[in-house]
Amino acid sequence: MTDDPKFPQRLDPAAEKIRRRRSIAIALTLGFMVLAFYVATFVHLGGNVAKGTF
Question: How far lies 43's CA from each of 2, 19, 47, in Å?
Fold first, then answer.
């Protein structure tokens, strides 16, 4: 019963550290992409938002 999905095996500390770093890198990349799309949209629309023309 060592492969029971209800009780996953713990990773060793080195693997946990690698997983944490990878998760942080993915989160930062996602945050940067959201910010980049926001800025690109804001720049693209520019002053036309106040006028109501796109």
Answer: 55, 36, 9
2 to 8, 14, 21: CA distances (angstroms): 8, 22, 28
What averages of pLDDT result for each successive group of 10 residues across the chain (54 residues)? 70 91 98 95 78 64
Tokens read off for 21: 């770093």
Count Cβ atoms within 10 A of the Cβ of residue 29 and give its class: 0-12 exposed, 13-18 middle, 19 or more buried: exposed
Whether the Cβ atoms of residue 26 and residue 34 lie closer than 8 Å to each other: no
3-state DSSP of 6-47:
CCCCCCCHHHHHHHHHHHHHHHHHHHHHHHHHHHHHHHHHCC
